[in-house]
């Protein structure tokens, strides 16, 4: 398992392994005792964002820009996807 990174060490050019980060995030949320349905929903929506991003090893800056576009776009990945 990868070491959890201190958020203050992330710069605009830091490369991030999105799939590994997703698994780490879900593991933390499972330890927080979130329901299986919530974990499934987190996985679904985060995987859709990774698909939208189109990169598994983006920089922090690329994630930031893509997230702004993703959240501002009217798409099938929105809250209305339930």
From TrEMBL:
> What is an example of a GO molecular function annotated in this UniProt entry?
DNA binding
Keywords assigned: DNA-binding
Q: Where is the Core-binding (CB) domain?
A: 16-82
Q: Which domain of life is it from?
A: Bacteria
Signal sequence, start to end: none
Q: Gene3D superfamilies from the entry?
A: 1.10.150.130
Report what the protein is called: Core-binding (CB) domain-containing protein
Organism, per UniProt?
A: Caldanaerobacter subterraneus
